[in-house]
Design a protein that fits this description.
Structural class: mainly beta
CATH superfamily of the largest domain: monomeric porin ompg
Strand order of the largest sheet: 1-2-3-6-7-8-9-12-13-15-16-17-18-19
Order of helices and strands: HHEEEEEEEEEEEEEEEEEEEHHEEEHHE
Helix content: 10-25%
CATH topology of the largest domain: Porin
Mean pLDDT: 74
Distance between the termini: 74 Å
Amino acid sequence: MGIKFKQHLIPATLALSILTTPLCAKEGGSSAGLILLQGNGARASALGEAFSSVSDDISGFHYNPASLDTLTKAHASFQYQSGIFEDSFSQFVIGAPLQEGAIGVSIGYYDGGEIRLFDGTEVRNVTAKTDLAVSLGFARSLGRASFGLTGKYLSTELAETDNASAVAADVGFQIPIGSRFRFGTALQNFGTQMEFHTEGEDLPQVFRAGASYQLPVPSVPVHVHFEVPYFFNEKETSPSFGIETLMGPLAFRAGYRSNTDLEGFSAGTGIFYRQISFDYSFGLVEDFDSRHKLNLSFRFGNKNKKPAFVNKQNPDNVEIPRRQTIGEAFLNQKRKKKRSITLQAKPAKSLTTGEKKKTTPSTVFSTKQKGKKDGLRAQKREVFEINKNKLTPIPTKKNLEHAQVKDRPKYYIMKPGDTLEKIALRFYGTIEIWPLIYDQNEELINNPDIIDLTGHKIELP
């Protein structure tokens, strides 16, 4: 019985015991390949893994391949997590936007630690279990929606005596709804079985549906995340919830996962410095102890090259006009169904003796910007005039060819503080192009005076 004992009984016993170790045990308790459910990133873990609708974060690749399409720059992340026993999990993920779409790669490795094994003749130390998971994903946009696909390869070895491998795939979808809401859904881990000798085990197949919402808090960004994953093998759900707020370079997070024995409550923080971020999370493990996770990530490169004139300062040193004033002028003109708009500063004309002031059929909007005294900053008066008789055509694709950026992106992800004027100046070299951007995204931007689309994708004309 010695050979059969070593080849069958020991691996089978280890499979039952090791797959329920705290670091790998998840809601898909009886499935093989539980490394595929191992949370990616300290930020996601702190938010209760309600992450299928999050944008512009490479950690979202693990939960929804469509999130790759929302990356604004190349993003790399490395995480390390220690288990309650001697097991550990480490993962490296990197993704980058392309001219059309985005690509991502993930490599995860689980080490179950050493155990003493008696094989019938001697006692020896062996590695209890090792898992290797490699993923390659691609995503691109169709209109405002993003679609993604991931291919996965998984290899598992038990007690250095038995091994198995499998392949699987994920599909995902994300779309922004309005200016503050985002929805995401994904199907994960559909593929072949893990076969140890002649016995096969299903991978942990999951369906995720989640949403993210930015609360209308004026001074402090607050994001709420909610997700309901459904585990096909166990036929059960595990709803999760997370909340995150930003205060300068610091992020504070908390989350909760229901119907799970592990990490019911989680919390964490993040520190940002330029293109580098450091994240930490911990989860309270029922009947055991707390679990800690560290994550280091950095962004680099640009989605597209910028022309030289975009990086130059305004030669006239003129400040970008206030959005409200320009928005009023533009909306007024839209109501009157005019074909053009003129945005310029017009000095007052001096009148000679006996000359009467002529009345021009125009609408003038002006704003005064208060400056510091003692010559630090002079008081300015900006006049934006819409002339009914002499109208300058609204910028069109034809007359904007001189301002076109050769490798300008077709879509742009809004960042905190972005305005239509700033985007126009950045990609076209002039703020006068902003009405064309508004027209292209009128369904998303209800009012250019009130625009807070952080994390949303807009289309550039």
